[in-house]
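Action item from last meeting closed. Structure (505 res):
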């Protein structure tokens, strides 16, 4: 490394967020940017640690010390090349990845003694910030260009779903010379990048410019096509030599408490896409609008999806006394949007009843504190008697996680086997549908070590394969699945492979 003592000379700094009073009035990204000088100082903090644990913390195997050193020396174009060698979309991960690499940074592990400071990564190298700056420098300078294949094969690949896994796979397969068609059921390409992640974290022009690059490379996009319904499985398999399923895991965990079906109770994945459509200028019928303006809001869930809901209601003008309840023994993750609202965040809260106002709408939520204990190797929940409480609400947003991919249509038609957590044998789609009527099993599409499903020539990657996870894992799975598909079609593949990360968090 160019500066072995940089971590001693420079304190960790991050670019300031836009002022709260300013950013809640719009949907622009709340982050700002460093100057080149400031960024180079932060890159200088990446020391020559001998064993770069950040590699094991990054699913993509990003060569973090390498491009940190290149930034420190001012070799920006070379830093971009290093970054792109492992990551198709660093501008995405530089904005919305929770940075497990920073959790694994030696400066986090060995120079931070306080557990709270470790959680907040107060000493870690600002890896994510540097990554974002490298990619944006690449776009500004015109270094990021389409790379169409020099030679074409006669093989055709269909990719179902256009989230980060699908886009990464599409780019890798197209650069290998295959004809690639991406099918998307919605009217815009990008999946959750477009209809899940809010603009204040990832402005959609950031996604659009990558999609345009893929178009220039020769990837075909077909929107508004729900494969399995609008396009039959028979026609799909007849027209393509291989199929990759990157359909996500959007089947949400259900609230079973009394009153779960009242007006004013909404699932996050109904609310968030609507917010993004509204920001994009789409027409939302008045009777369908989920508007939290001047309303009391309760968010159930403590993850990133819940935080995305919080950021949107902050901008819609919800009443300030927002509540966020998490069922498990973990406080909701603090994020920049929590600074905007300072909500009442509580863990170990079980929702028992959503109270009706007498006209079919939400009036209040009745909850109770719970305790968790391990019995016979399993965590069990127990009510804390006397801890019952009731809080008023106009809207309840459900962000309680996801069970697995949509079973109806495509998966039924393909007949691929599914894996249900807690069971060893595979299950057919019809069997999982039956389970879902009376329970909430967590499941995914079963695949082998080459990402192939139980159907020959049909592969799977991303959340549909590993369960709801991070964008960085989705990109990794898309890249790896592309290499396996390429080898399946051609007998071998020259596409790079990155061993699965041992995430040290």
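Sequence:
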């Amino acid at each position: 490394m160019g500066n072995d003592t940089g971590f001693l000379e420079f304190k960790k700094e991050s670019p300031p967020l836009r002022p709260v009073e300013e950013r809640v009035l719009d949907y622009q990204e709340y982050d700002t940017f460093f100057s080149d000088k400031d960024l180079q100082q932060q890159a200088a903090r990446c020391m020559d640690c001998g064993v770069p644990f950040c590699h094991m913390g990054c699913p993509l195997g990003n060569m973090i010390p390498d491009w940190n050193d290149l930034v420190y020396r001012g070799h920006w174009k070379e830093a971009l090349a290093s970054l792109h060698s492992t990551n198709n979309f660093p501008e995405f991960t530089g904005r919305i990845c929770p940075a497990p690499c920073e959790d694994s940074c030696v400066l986090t592990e060995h120079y931070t003694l306080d557990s709270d400071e470790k959680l907040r990564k107060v000493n870690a190298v600002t890896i994510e910030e540097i990554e974002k700056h490298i990619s944006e420098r690449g776009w500004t300078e015109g270094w990021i260009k389409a790379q169409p294949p020099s030679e074409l094969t006669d093989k055709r690949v269909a990719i179902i779903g256009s989230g980060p896994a699908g886009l990464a796979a599409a780019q890798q397969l197209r650069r290998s010379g295959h004809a690639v068609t991406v099918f998307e059921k919605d009217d815009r390409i990008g999946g959750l990048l477009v209809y899940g992640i809010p603009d204040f974290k990832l402005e959609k022009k950031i996604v659009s410019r990558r999609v345009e690059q893929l178009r220039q490379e020769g990837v075909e996009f077909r929107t508004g096509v729900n494969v399995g319904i609008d396009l039959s499985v028979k026609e799909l398999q007849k027209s393509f030599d291989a199929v990759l399923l990157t359909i996500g895991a959007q089947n949400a965990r259900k609230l079973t408490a009394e009153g779960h079906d009242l007006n004013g109770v909404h699932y996050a994945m109904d609310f968030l896409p609507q917010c993004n459509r509204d920001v994009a200028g789409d027409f939302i019928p008045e009777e369908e609008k989920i508007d939290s303006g001047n309303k009391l809001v309760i968010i159930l869930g403590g993850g990133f999806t819940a935080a995305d809901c919080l950021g949107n209601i902050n901008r819609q003008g919800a009443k300030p006394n927002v509540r966020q309840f998490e069922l498990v023994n973990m406080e909701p993750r603090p994020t920049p949007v929590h600074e905007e609202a300072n909500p009442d965040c509580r863990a170990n809260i079980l929702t028992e009843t959503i109270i009706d106002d007498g006209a079919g709408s939400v009036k209040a939520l009745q909850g109770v504190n719970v305790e968790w204990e391990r019995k016979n190797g399993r965590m069990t929940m127990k009510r804390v008697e006397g801890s019952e409480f009731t809080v008023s609400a106009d809207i309840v947003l459900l962000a309680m996680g996801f069970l697995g991919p949509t079973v109806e249509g495509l998966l039924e038609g393909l007949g691929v086997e599914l894996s249900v957590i807690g069971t060893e044998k595979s299950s057919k789609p019809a069997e999982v549908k039956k389970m879902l009527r009376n329970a909430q099993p967590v499941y995914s599409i079963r695949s082998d070590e080459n990402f192939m499903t139980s159907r020959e020539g049909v592969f799977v990657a991303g959340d549909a394969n590993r369960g709801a996870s991070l964008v960085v894992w989705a990109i990794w799975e898309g890249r790896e699945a592309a290499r396996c598909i390429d080898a399946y079609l051609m007998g071998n593949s020259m596409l790079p492979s990155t061993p699965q990360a041992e995430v040290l968090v």
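Note appended to the action item: The chain has three domains: 6-141, 156-251+403-490, 254-400.
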